[in-house]
Design a protein that fits this description.
eight-stranded mixed sheet, about 25% strand, nine-stranded mixed sheet, globular, GMP Synthetase, Chain A, domain 3, 3 domains, Rossmann fold, about 575 residues, alpha/beta, single chain
Length: about 575
Protein backbone atom coordinates (compact mmCIF):
# COMPACT_ATOMS: atom_id res chain seq x y z
CA UNK A 1 0.00 0.00 0.00
CA UNK A 2 3.01 2.32 -0.11
CA UNK A 3 3.88 4.75 -2.86
CA UNK A 4 6.72 7.16 -3.45
CA UNK A 5 4.88 10.40 -2.66
CA UNK A 6 5.90 12.37 0.44
CA UNK A 7 3.47 13.39 3.12
CA UNK A 8 3.43 17.20 3.12
CA UNK A 9 3.16 17.45 6.90
CA UNK A 10 5.80 14.91 7.95
CA UNK A 11 8.06 14.55 4.95
CA UNK A 12 7.78 10.77 5.35
CA UNK A 13 6.70 8.46 2.53
CA UNK A 14 2.93 8.75 2.16
CA UNK A 15 0.62 5.81 2.77
CA UNK A 16 -2.25 5.14 0.41
CA UNK A 17 -5.28 5.64 2.67
CA UNK A 18 -8.48 4.85 0.75
CA UNK A 19 -10.58 5.24 3.91
CA UNK A 20 -10.04 9.01 3.86
CA UNK A 21 -12.77 9.30 1.22
CA UNK A 22 -15.25 8.81 4.07
CA UNK A 23 -13.96 11.89 5.91
CA UNK A 24 -14.40 15.58 5.17
CA UNK A 25 -11.40 17.86 4.74
CA UNK A 26 -12.28 19.46 8.08
CA UNK A 27 -12.16 16.08 9.82
CA UNK A 28 -8.83 15.19 8.22
CA UNK A 29 -7.23 18.55 9.04
CA UNK A 30 -8.73 18.90 12.55
CA UNK A 31 -6.18 19.79 15.22
CA UNK A 32 -5.67 17.19 17.93
CA UNK A 33 -6.20 18.22 21.58
CA UNK A 34 -3.14 19.12 23.63
CA UNK A 35 -4.09 19.18 27.30
CA UNK A 36 -4.53 16.93 30.33
CA UNK A 37 -7.51 14.55 30.40
CA UNK A 38 -9.04 16.59 33.24
CA UNK A 39 -8.68 19.80 31.25
CA UNK A 40 -10.40 18.18 28.26
CA UNK A 41 -13.57 17.22 30.14
CA UNK A 42 -13.60 20.59 31.94
CA UNK A 43 -13.24 22.63 28.77
CA UNK A 44 -16.04 20.75 27.06
CA UNK A 45 -18.51 20.92 29.97
CA UNK A 46 -17.74 24.14 31.88
CA UNK A 47 -20.68 25.94 30.30
CA UNK A 48 -23.19 23.14 30.92
CA UNK A 49 -22.55 22.13 34.52
CA UNK A 50 -26.17 21.39 35.41
CA UNK A 51 -26.35 18.53 32.89
CA UNK A 52 -26.25 14.99 34.29
CA UNK A 53 -22.82 13.38 34.19
CA UNK A 54 -23.58 10.08 35.99
CA UNK A 55 -26.56 7.92 36.72
CA UNK A 56 -25.45 5.68 39.59
CA UNK A 57 -28.20 3.23 40.53
CA UNK A 58 -30.81 5.94 40.04
CA UNK A 59 -28.88 8.77 41.67
CA UNK A 60 -28.04 11.44 39.12
CA UNK A 61 -24.93 13.56 39.61
CA UNK A 62 -24.32 16.66 37.50
CA UNK A 63 -21.11 17.76 35.85
CA UNK A 64 -20.87 20.39 38.60
CA UNK A 65 -20.88 17.59 41.17
CA UNK A 66 -18.36 15.63 39.10
CA UNK A 67 -15.87 18.51 39.12
CA UNK A 68 -16.48 19.11 42.83
CA UNK A 69 -15.74 15.44 43.54
CA UNK A 70 -12.56 15.66 41.45
CA UNK A 71 -11.42 18.75 43.36
CA UNK A 72 -12.09 17.07 46.71
CA UNK A 73 -10.02 14.07 45.60
CA UNK A 74 -7.15 16.27 44.37
CA UNK A 75 -7.07 18.14 47.71
CA UNK A 76 -7.09 14.90 49.68
CA UNK A 77 -4.22 13.39 47.71
CA UNK A 78 -2.18 16.57 48.19
CA UNK A 79 -2.91 16.40 51.93
CA UNK A 80 -1.26 12.96 52.24
CA UNK A 81 1.77 14.09 50.23
CA UNK A 82 1.06 12.84 46.71
CA UNK A 83 3.04 14.86 44.20
CA UNK A 84 3.62 15.14 40.47
CA UNK A 85 4.87 11.89 38.93
CA UNK A 86 3.78 9.65 41.83
CA UNK A 87 2.07 6.41 40.81
CA UNK A 88 -1.00 5.46 42.83
CA UNK A 89 -2.48 1.94 42.78
CA UNK A 90 -6.23 2.07 42.09
CA UNK A 91 -7.95 -1.28 42.65
CA UNK A 92 -11.59 -0.72 41.94
CA UNK A 93 -14.58 -0.87 39.62
CA UNK A 94 -16.60 1.91 38.01
CA UNK A 95 -18.07 3.89 40.87
CA UNK A 96 -18.03 7.71 41.21
CA UNK A 97 -15.11 7.67 43.67
CA UNK A 98 -12.93 5.77 41.19
CA UNK A 99 -13.60 8.48 38.63
CA UNK A 100 -12.91 11.28 41.12
CA UNK A 101 -9.63 9.52 41.92
CA UNK A 102 -8.53 9.19 38.30
CA UNK A 103 -9.20 12.80 37.32
CA UNK A 104 -8.16 14.17 40.72
CA UNK A 105 -4.74 12.55 40.40
CA UNK A 106 -4.52 13.89 36.85
CA UNK A 107 -5.06 17.45 38.08
CA UNK A 108 -1.98 17.25 40.29
CA UNK A 109 0.16 15.38 37.76
CA UNK A 110 0.06 11.94 39.43
CA UNK A 111 -0.52 8.61 37.65
CA UNK A 112 -3.33 6.09 38.22
CA UNK A 113 -2.15 2.48 38.11
CA UNK A 114 -5.44 0.70 37.41
CA UNK A 115 -5.66 -2.87 38.76
CA UNK A 116 -8.39 -5.48 38.42
CA UNK A 117 -9.83 -6.20 41.92
CA UNK A 118 -10.03 -9.89 40.96
CA UNK A 119 -6.22 -10.06 40.81
CA UNK A 120 -4.71 -12.32 43.46
CA UNK A 121 -3.05 -10.79 46.53
CA UNK A 122 0.33 -11.84 45.19
CA UNK A 123 -0.44 -10.28 41.82
CA UNK A 124 -1.48 -7.02 43.47
CA UNK A 125 1.72 -7.00 45.50
CA UNK A 126 3.78 -7.38 42.32
CA UNK A 127 1.98 -4.45 40.70
CA UNK A 128 2.57 -2.32 43.82
CA UNK A 129 6.25 -3.25 44.03
CA UNK A 130 6.78 -2.70 40.30
CA UNK A 131 5.99 1.01 40.58
CA UNK A 132 6.84 1.38 44.30
CA UNK A 133 3.37 2.73 45.04
CA UNK A 134 3.10 4.48 48.42
CA UNK A 135 -0.68 4.97 48.21
CA UNK A 136 -3.39 2.42 47.41
CA UNK A 137 -7.02 3.21 46.64
CA UNK A 138 -9.00 -0.01 46.94
CA UNK A 139 -12.56 -1.29 46.88
CA UNK A 140 -13.64 -2.52 50.31
CA UNK A 141 -14.53 -5.93 48.90
CA UNK A 142 -10.81 -6.50 48.29
CA UNK A 143 -9.91 -5.57 51.91
CA UNK A 144 -8.58 -9.02 52.84
CA UNK A 145 -6.45 -9.15 49.69
CA UNK A 146 -4.93 -5.74 50.24
CA UNK A 147 -3.99 -6.54 53.85
CA UNK A 148 -1.89 -9.40 52.51
CA UNK A 149 -0.70 -7.60 49.37
CA UNK A 150 0.92 -4.60 51.09
CA UNK A 151 3.14 -6.72 53.35
CA UNK A 152 6.75 -6.01 52.39
CA UNK A 153 5.90 -2.92 50.32
CA UNK A 154 6.36 0.81 50.95
CA UNK A 155 2.61 1.51 51.06
CA UNK A 156 1.90 4.17 53.71
CA UNK A 157 -1.75 4.97 52.97
CA UNK A 158 -4.72 2.79 52.02
CA UNK A 159 -7.94 4.57 51.03
CA UNK A 160 -10.98 2.30 51.14
CA UNK A 161 -13.85 2.81 48.72
CA UNK A 162 -17.30 1.32 48.99
CA UNK A 163 -19.95 0.95 46.28
CA UNK A 164 -22.31 2.44 48.86
CA UNK A 165 -20.43 5.76 49.15
CA UNK A 166 -22.50 7.46 46.42
CA UNK A 167 -25.63 5.31 46.45
CA UNK A 168 -29.06 6.92 46.87
CA UNK A 169 -30.06 7.01 50.55
CA UNK A 170 -32.55 4.15 50.33
CA UNK A 171 -30.16 1.85 48.49
CA UNK A 172 -27.32 2.74 50.87
CA UNK A 173 -29.36 1.31 53.74
CA UNK A 174 -29.81 -1.92 51.79
CA UNK A 175 -26.10 -2.38 51.09
CA UNK A 176 -25.18 -5.46 53.04
CA UNK A 177 -22.31 -5.20 55.51
CA UNK A 178 -21.07 -8.59 54.37
CA UNK A 179 -20.32 -7.23 50.91
CA UNK A 180 -17.59 -4.96 52.19
CA UNK A 181 -15.46 -4.08 55.18
CA UNK A 182 -16.03 -0.87 57.08
CA UNK A 183 -12.68 0.85 57.33
CA UNK A 184 -12.79 3.84 59.59
CA UNK A 185 -9.98 6.29 60.18
CA UNK A 186 -6.99 4.31 61.48
CA UNK A 187 -3.23 4.75 61.28
CA UNK A 188 -3.01 3.17 57.85
CA UNK A 189 -6.57 2.87 56.51
CA UNK A 190 -8.93 5.71 55.64
CA UNK A 191 -12.51 5.56 54.48
CA UNK A 192 -13.23 7.76 51.47
CA UNK A 193 -15.29 10.12 53.64
CA UNK A 194 -12.46 10.61 56.14
CA UNK A 195 -9.90 10.91 53.37
CA UNK A 196 -11.81 13.73 51.66
CA UNK A 197 -12.57 15.51 54.94
CA UNK A 198 -8.88 15.62 55.85
CA UNK A 199 -8.04 17.45 52.62
CA UNK A 200 -10.76 20.08 52.82
CA UNK A 201 -8.38 22.96 53.59
CA UNK A 202 -5.86 22.18 50.84
CA UNK A 203 -5.51 24.44 47.81
CA UNK A 204 -5.20 22.71 44.43
CA UNK A 205 -2.51 23.98 42.13
CA UNK A 206 -2.98 22.28 38.79
CA UNK A 207 0.16 20.82 37.28
CA UNK A 208 0.50 22.15 33.70
CA UNK A 209 0.14 19.86 30.70
CA UNK A 210 3.31 18.28 29.36
CA UNK A 211 3.31 16.39 26.08
CA UNK A 212 3.82 12.62 26.19
CA UNK A 213 3.44 12.37 29.97
CA UNK A 214 1.92 9.21 31.42
CA UNK A 215 -1.46 9.68 33.10
CA UNK A 216 -2.62 6.07 33.54
CA UNK A 217 -1.21 2.55 33.56
CA UNK A 218 -3.40 -0.39 32.53
CA UNK A 219 -2.25 -3.98 32.41
CA UNK A 220 -2.12 -6.44 29.55
CA UNK A 221 -0.27 -9.54 28.47
CA UNK A 222 0.64 -7.77 25.21
CA UNK A 223 1.94 -10.18 22.60
CA UNK A 224 3.75 -12.56 24.97
CA UNK A 225 1.37 -13.16 27.85
CA UNK A 226 3.58 -11.87 30.67
CA UNK A 227 1.62 -9.08 32.43
CA UNK A 228 2.92 -5.62 31.57
CA UNK A 229 1.94 -2.10 32.51
CA UNK A 230 0.86 -0.12 29.46
CA UNK A 231 1.65 3.57 29.93
CA UNK A 232 -0.97 5.77 28.28
CA UNK A 233 -0.53 9.53 28.12
CA UNK A 234 -2.96 12.41 28.30
CA UNK A 235 -2.46 12.71 24.55
CA UNK A 236 -3.31 9.03 24.00
CA UNK A 237 -6.65 9.13 25.82
CA UNK A 238 -7.60 12.57 24.51
CA UNK A 239 -6.74 11.73 20.90
CA UNK A 240 -8.62 8.44 21.16
CA UNK A 241 -11.69 10.32 22.40
CA UNK A 242 -11.26 13.04 19.80
CA UNK A 243 -10.99 10.60 16.90
CA UNK A 244 -14.15 8.78 17.96
CA UNK A 245 -16.01 12.09 18.07
CA UNK A 246 -14.37 13.33 14.85
CA UNK A 247 -16.08 10.62 12.79
CA UNK A 248 -19.42 9.55 11.37
CA UNK A 249 -20.62 8.16 14.71
CA UNK A 250 -23.96 9.60 15.81
CA UNK A 251 -23.04 11.10 19.19
CA UNK A 252 -24.25 14.25 20.88
CA UNK A 253 -24.30 16.02 24.22
CA UNK A 254 -26.92 14.56 26.53
CA UNK A 255 -26.93 11.08 25.00
CA UNK A 256 -27.27 8.23 27.50
CA UNK A 257 -24.15 6.05 27.51
CA UNK A 258 -24.26 2.62 29.19
CA UNK A 259 -20.79 2.13 30.68
CA UNK A 260 -20.41 -1.62 31.12
CA UNK A 261 -16.63 -1.80 30.64
CA UNK A 262 -14.38 -1.82 33.77
CA UNK A 263 -11.96 1.09 34.37
CA UNK A 264 -8.87 -1.14 34.63
CA UNK A 265 -8.75 -1.79 30.87
CA UNK A 266 -7.98 0.76 28.15
CA UNK A 267 -11.34 0.07 26.50
CA UNK A 268 -13.06 1.01 29.77
CA UNK A 269 -11.10 4.02 31.03
CA UNK A 270 -10.72 5.56 27.57
CA UNK A 271 -13.55 4.67 25.19
CA UNK A 272 -16.03 3.66 27.89
CA UNK A 273 -15.62 6.57 30.30
CA UNK A 274 -13.38 9.44 29.17
CA UNK A 275 -14.85 9.87 25.69
CA UNK A 276 -18.55 10.14 26.74
CA UNK A 277 -17.59 12.59 29.51
CA UNK A 278 -15.67 14.75 27.03
CA UNK A 279 -18.76 14.71 24.81
CA UNK A 280 -21.04 15.70 27.70
CA UNK A 281 -23.12 12.54 27.80
CA UNK A 282 -25.03 11.05 30.72
CA UNK A 283 -22.98 8.00 31.73
CA UNK A 284 -24.86 5.13 33.36
CA UNK A 285 -22.32 3.55 35.74
CA UNK A 286 -22.52 -0.25 35.95
CA UNK A 287 -19.89 -1.36 38.53
CA UNK A 288 -20.81 -5.06 38.46
CA UNK A 289 -22.02 -5.83 34.98
CA UNK A 290 -23.94 -9.07 34.43
CA UNK A 291 -24.33 -9.90 30.71
CA UNK A 292 -27.38 -12.00 31.58
CA UNK A 293 -29.11 -8.83 32.77
CA UNK A 294 -28.21 -6.57 29.84
CA UNK A 295 -31.85 -6.67 28.76
CA UNK A 296 -32.99 -5.21 32.10
CA UNK A 297 -30.41 -2.44 31.71
CA UNK A 298 -31.76 -1.61 28.24
CA UNK A 299 -35.36 -1.48 29.43
CA UNK A 300 -34.55 0.60 32.53
CA UNK A 301 -32.18 3.20 31.07
CA UNK A 302 -33.03 3.23 27.32
CA UNK A 303 -29.40 4.07 26.40
CA UNK A 304 -28.59 5.95 23.22
CA UNK A 305 -25.10 4.44 23.07
CA UNK A 306 -23.86 1.02 24.11
CA UNK A 307 -20.41 -0.54 23.77
CA UNK A 308 -19.90 -4.21 24.47
CA UNK A 309 -18.20 -7.44 23.46
CA UNK A 310 -19.90 -10.02 21.19
CA UNK A 311 -21.30 -12.12 24.05
CA UNK A 312 -23.17 -9.08 25.40
CA UNK A 313 -25.16 -8.92 22.18
CA UNK A 314 -25.78 -12.65 22.36
CA UNK A 315 -27.65 -12.01 25.60
CA UNK A 316 -29.64 -9.17 24.04
CA UNK A 317 -30.88 -11.11 21.01
CA UNK A 318 -31.87 -14.10 23.16
CA UNK A 319 -33.74 -11.99 25.70
CA UNK A 320 -37.41 -12.77 26.26
CA UNK A 321 -37.88 -9.39 27.94
CA UNK A 322 -36.83 -7.53 24.78
CA UNK A 323 -38.82 -9.70 22.39
CA UNK A 324 -41.57 -7.17 21.65
CA UNK A 325 -39.84 -4.00 22.81
CA UNK A 326 -39.25 -0.95 20.64
CA UNK A 327 -35.54 -0.05 20.78
CA UNK A 328 -35.49 2.89 18.40
CA UNK A 329 -33.81 4.96 21.14
CA UNK A 330 -30.57 3.04 20.47
CA UNK A 331 -28.45 4.98 17.99
CA UNK A 332 -25.00 3.37 18.25
CA UNK A 333 -24.85 -0.37 19.03
CA UNK A 334 -21.05 -0.79 19.13
CA UNK A 335 -19.10 -4.02 19.60
CA UNK A 336 -15.37 -4.53 20.20
CA UNK A 337 -12.95 -6.54 22.30
CA UNK A 338 -13.03 -9.48 19.88
CA UNK A 339 -13.95 -10.10 16.25
CA UNK A 340 -17.65 -10.87 15.93
CA UNK A 341 -18.38 -14.05 14.02
CA UNK A 342 -20.37 -13.60 10.82
CA UNK A 343 -23.33 -15.71 11.92
CA UNK A 344 -23.68 -13.75 15.18
CA UNK A 345 -23.33 -10.47 13.27
CA UNK A 346 -26.20 -11.52 10.96
CA UNK A 347 -28.40 -12.53 13.91
CA UNK A 348 -27.75 -9.27 15.75
CA UNK A 349 -28.50 -7.20 12.64
CA UNK A 350 -31.79 -9.01 12.12
CA UNK A 351 -32.71 -8.41 15.75
CA UNK A 352 -31.83 -4.70 15.58
CA UNK A 353 -33.89 -4.23 12.43
CA UNK A 354 -36.88 -6.02 13.95
CA UNK A 355 -36.67 -3.72 16.98
CA UNK A 356 -36.49 -0.48 15.00
CA UNK A 357 -32.82 0.30 15.61
CA UNK A 358 -31.50 2.65 12.93
CA UNK A 359 -28.06 1.06 12.40
CA UNK A 360 -26.64 -2.40 12.05
CA UNK A 361 -24.11 -3.52 14.64
CA UNK A 362 -21.13 -1.14 14.55
CA UNK A 363 -17.96 -3.21 14.91
CA UNK A 364 -14.62 -1.84 16.03
CA UNK A 365 -11.02 -2.89 16.46
CA UNK A 366 -8.16 -1.93 18.73
CA UNK A 367 -5.76 -3.04 21.42
CA UNK A 368 -4.59 -1.80 24.79
CA UNK A 369 -1.28 -0.59 23.38
CA UNK A 370 -3.08 1.89 21.10
CA UNK A 371 -5.56 3.13 23.72
CA UNK A 372 -8.27 0.69 22.61
CA UNK A 373 -10.22 1.63 19.46
CA UNK A 374 -8.39 2.58 16.25
CA UNK A 375 -10.98 1.58 13.63
CA UNK A 376 -14.74 1.23 13.49
CA UNK A 377 -17.82 0.80 11.37
CA UNK A 378 -19.35 4.21 12.01
CA UNK A 379 -22.56 4.01 10.00
CA UNK A 380 -24.32 1.62 7.62
CA UNK A 381 -22.38 3.23 4.75
CA UNK A 382 -19.11 2.33 6.50
CA UNK A 383 -19.97 -1.19 7.57
CA UNK A 384 -19.09 -4.13 5.37
CA UNK A 385 -20.18 -7.54 6.59
CA UNK A 386 -17.30 -9.16 8.47
CA UNK A 387 -15.15 -6.03 8.63
CA UNK A 388 -14.18 -3.97 11.67
CA UNK A 389 -14.50 -0.69 9.81
CA UNK A 390 -12.08 1.99 8.72
CA UNK A 391 -9.19 3.63 10.60
CA UNK A 392 -9.89 6.95 12.28
CA UNK A 393 -8.88 10.08 10.43
CA UNK A 394 -5.55 10.57 12.23
CA UNK A 395 -4.63 6.88 12.37
CA UNK A 396 -2.97 4.68 9.74
CA UNK A 397 -3.46 0.91 9.69
CA UNK A 398 -1.73 -1.42 7.26
CA UNK A 399 -0.80 -5.08 6.75
CA UNK A 400 2.86 -6.12 6.71
CA UNK A 401 4.63 -9.34 5.85
CA UNK A 402 5.48 -10.83 9.23
CA UNK A 403 8.85 -12.18 8.07
CA UNK A 404 10.17 -9.52 5.67
CA UNK A 405 8.52 -6.43 7.13
CA UNK A 406 7.31 -5.43 3.66
CA UNK A 407 4.12 -3.39 3.55
CA UNK A 408 1.47 -5.30 1.63
CA UNK A 409 -1.00 -4.20 -1.00
CA UNK A 410 -4.75 -3.94 -0.54
CA UNK A 411 -6.29 -7.38 -0.13
CA UNK A 412 -3.06 -9.11 0.90
CA UNK A 413 -3.07 -10.76 4.32
CA UNK A 414 -0.34 -9.91 6.81
CA UNK A 415 0.28 -8.67 10.33
CA UNK A 416 -1.89 -5.68 11.17
CA UNK A 417 0.17 -2.71 12.34
CA UNK A 418 -1.02 0.68 13.58
CA UNK A 419 0.54 4.12 13.76
CA UNK A 420 -0.96 7.33 15.08
CA UNK A 421 -1.48 9.52 18.16
CA UNK A 422 -3.16 6.73 20.18
CA UNK A 423 0.08 4.71 20.43
CA UNK A 424 1.21 4.06 24.01
CA UNK A 425 4.36 5.54 25.52
CA UNK A 426 5.59 2.01 26.18
CA UNK A 427 5.49 -0.73 28.79
CA UNK A 428 6.44 0.43 32.27
CA UNK A 429 10.10 -0.34 33.01
CA UNK A 430 10.25 -2.89 30.19
CA UNK A 431 12.21 -1.57 27.24
CA UNK A 432 12.76 -5.01 25.70
CA UNK A 433 9.05 -5.81 25.44
CA UNK A 434 8.32 -2.26 24.26
CA UNK A 435 10.80 -2.70 21.43
CA UNK A 436 9.14 -6.00 20.49
CA UNK A 437 5.84 -4.28 19.74
CA UNK A 438 6.71 -0.67 18.85
CA UNK A 439 9.00 -0.58 15.83
CA UNK A 440 10.18 2.20 13.54
CA UNK A 441 9.54 1.40 9.88
CA UNK A 442 11.25 2.73 6.78
CA UNK A 443 8.72 5.57 6.57
CA UNK A 444 10.06 7.02 9.84
CA UNK A 445 6.92 6.27 11.82
CA UNK A 446 6.56 4.16 14.97
CA UNK A 447 4.17 1.26 14.29
CA UNK A 448 2.48 -0.94 16.89
CA UNK A 449 2.58 -4.60 15.83
CA UNK A 450 -0.71 -6.20 16.83
CA UNK A 451 0.07 -9.87 16.31
CA UNK A 452 -3.24 -10.11 14.42
CA UNK A 453 -3.55 -11.29 10.82
CA UNK A 454 -5.76 -9.43 8.40
CA UNK A 455 -6.03 -7.23 5.34
CA UNK A 456 -7.40 -3.89 4.18
CA UNK A 457 -9.60 -3.88 1.11
CA UNK A 458 -9.85 -1.35 -1.71
CA UNK A 459 -12.24 0.84 0.31
CA UNK A 460 -9.98 0.95 3.35
CA UNK A 461 -12.08 -1.54 5.34
CA UNK A 462 -10.14 -3.63 7.83
CA UNK A 463 -10.73 -7.39 8.12
CA UNK A 464 -9.22 -9.48 10.94
CA UNK A 465 -8.61 -13.10 9.95
CA UNK A 466 -6.70 -14.70 12.81
CA UNK A 467 -3.93 -14.27 15.33
CA UNK A 468 -0.21 -14.77 15.22
CA UNK A 469 -0.03 -14.82 18.99
CA UNK A 470 -1.50 -17.58 21.13
CA UNK A 471 -4.11 -15.49 22.83
CA UNK A 472 -7.39 -16.87 24.16
CA UNK A 473 -10.33 -14.46 24.11
CA UNK A 474 -13.19 -15.29 26.47
CA UNK A 475 -16.85 -14.70 25.66
CA UNK A 476 -16.76 -11.47 27.70
CA UNK A 477 -13.78 -10.07 25.77
CA UNK A 478 -11.16 -10.67 28.46
CA UNK A 479 -7.86 -11.83 27.02
CA UNK A 480 -6.13 -14.84 28.55
CA UNK A 481 -2.47 -15.52 27.80
CA UNK A 482 -1.34 -19.17 27.86
CA UNK A 483 2.23 -18.40 28.98
CA UNK A 484 0.98 -16.69 32.13
CA UNK A 485 -1.00 -19.80 33.15
CA UNK A 486 1.70 -22.24 32.07
CA UNK A 487 4.32 -20.52 34.23
CA UNK A 488 2.02 -20.81 37.23
CA UNK A 489 1.30 -24.52 36.72
CA UNK A 490 4.98 -25.29 36.19
CA UNK A 491 5.68 -24.12 39.74
CA UNK A 492 4.42 -27.51 40.89
CA UNK A 493 7.50 -29.79 41.02
CA UNK A 494 5.55 -32.78 39.70
CA UNK A 495 4.73 -31.00 36.43
CA UNK A 496 7.32 -31.54 33.69
CA UNK A 497 5.59 -29.75 30.79
CA UNK A 498 2.46 -27.69 30.37
CA UNK A 499 0.61 -26.30 27.38
CA UNK A 500 -2.52 -24.15 27.71
CA UNK A 501 -4.92 -23.82 24.77
CA UNK A 502 -8.39 -22.47 24.18
CA UNK A 503 -11.49 -24.63 24.30
CA UNK A 504 -14.76 -23.44 22.78
CA UNK A 505 -17.13 -22.02 25.38
CA UNK A 506 -20.27 -23.98 24.51
CA UNK A 507 -22.42 -21.93 26.89
CA UNK A 508 -22.00 -18.86 24.67
CA UNK A 509 -22.23 -18.11 20.96
CA UNK A 510 -18.50 -17.50 20.83
CA UNK A 511 -15.43 -17.20 23.00
CA UNK A 512 -12.99 -19.67 24.48
CA UNK A 513 -11.83 -20.80 27.91
CA UNK A 514 -8.33 -22.01 28.84
CA UNK A 515 -7.62 -25.69 29.40
CA UNK A 516 -4.24 -27.10 30.46
CA UNK A 517 -2.45 -30.17 29.06
CA UNK A 518 0.15 -31.52 31.47
CA UNK A 519 3.00 -34.01 31.29
CA UNK A 520 4.18 -35.28 34.69
CA UNK A 521 7.63 -36.30 35.87
CA UNK A 522 8.47 -39.96 36.52
CA UNK A 523 6.96 -40.07 40.01
CA UNK A 524 3.33 -39.36 39.15
CA UNK A 525 1.87 -40.10 42.58
CA UNK A 526 -1.83 -39.57 43.21
CA UNK A 527 -3.17 -37.78 40.13
CA UNK A 528 -6.47 -36.79 41.76
CA UNK A 529 -4.62 -35.09 44.59
CA UNK A 530 -2.26 -33.41 42.14
CA UNK A 531 -5.15 -31.99 40.12
CA UNK A 532 -6.64 -30.56 43.31
CA UNK A 533 -3.28 -28.95 44.12
CA UNK A 534 -3.03 -27.44 40.63
CA UNK A 535 -6.56 -26.07 40.83
CA UNK A 536 -5.81 -24.47 44.20
CA UNK A 537 -2.50 -23.07 42.90
CA UNK A 538 -4.28 -21.40 39.97
CA UNK A 539 -7.02 -20.02 42.21
CA UNK A 540 -4.41 -18.43 44.48
CA UNK A 541 -2.13 -16.98 41.81
CA UNK A 542 -4.29 -16.27 38.76
CA UNK A 543 -7.18 -13.83 38.20
CA UNK A 544 -10.58 -15.53 38.13
CA UNK A 545 -10.96 -15.08 34.38
CA UNK A 546 -7.61 -16.81 33.69
CA UNK A 547 -8.17 -19.98 35.71
CA UNK A 548 -8.19 -23.14 33.55
CA UNK A 549 -11.52 -24.74 32.87
CA UNK A 550 -9.95 -28.21 32.98
CA UNK A 551 -6.65 -30.07 33.35
CA UNK A 552 -5.69 -33.00 31.12
CA UNK A 553 -2.79 -35.28 32.02
CA UNK A 554 -1.10 -36.79 28.94
CA UNK A 555 1.93 -39.05 28.51
CA UNK A 556 3.88 -36.73 26.21
CA UNK A 557 3.50 -33.47 24.33
CA UNK A 558 2.83 -33.63 20.58
CA UNK A 559 5.67 -31.97 18.68
CA UNK A 560 5.94 -30.15 15.36
CA UNK A 561 8.50 -31.16 12.75
CA UNK A 562 11.05 -28.81 14.32
CA UNK A 563 10.49 -30.10 17.83
CA UNK A 564 8.20 -27.41 19.27
CA UNK A 565 5.07 -28.28 21.22
CA UNK A 566 2.26 -28.59 18.68
CA UNK A 567 -0.32 -26.45 20.48
CA UNK A 568 -2.54 -26.37 17.40
CA UNK A 569 -2.93 -30.14 17.64
CA UNK A 570 -3.86 -29.78 21.32
CA UNK A 571 -6.41 -27.11 20.37
CA UNK A 572 -8.02 -29.62 18.03
CA UNK A 573 -8.04 -32.24 20.79
CA UNK A 574 -9.60 -29.80 23.25
CA UNK A 575 -12.35 -28.86 20.84
CA UNK A 576 -13.02 -32.42 19.74
CA UNK A 577 -13.70 -33.47 23.32
CA UNK A 578 -15.52 -30.27 24.38
Amino acid sequence: MSDTRLDKKTGYPSIDRPWLKYYTKEQIDAALPECKVYDYILENNKDDLSRTAFNYYGRKLTYRQLFRGIEDAAKAFLQIGVKEGDIIAVISVTIPETIYTFYGLNRIGAVSNMIDPRTSAEGIREYILEVDAKVVVVLDMAYEKIKEAIVGTNVSHVIMLSPSDSLPAAKKLLYRLGKGTKAGKTADYLSWRSFVADGADQVVRDVPYKKDTCCVIVHTGGTTGRPKGVMLSNDNLNCSAFQLMNSAFTMKRGDIWADVMPPFIAYGIGNGLHMPLVKGMEVVLIPAFDPEKYDKLMIKYRPTQIVGVPSHYEGIINSRRLKNKDMSYLESPVVGGDTMKIDLEDKVNSFLKEHNVRFNILKGYGMTEVSAAVSACMSDEINKRGSVGIPFAHTVISAFDHDTGEELKQGQKGEICITGPNTMLGYYDNEEETDNILKMHDDGRIWAHSGDLGHIDEDGMLFIEGRIKRMIIRHDGFKVFPGFIENTILKNPLVKQCCVVGQNDLSHAQGMLPVAYIVLRNDKGNQDELLKELKLLCEEELPEYAQPRAFFIIDSMPLTSIGKIDYRYLEKCANTTS
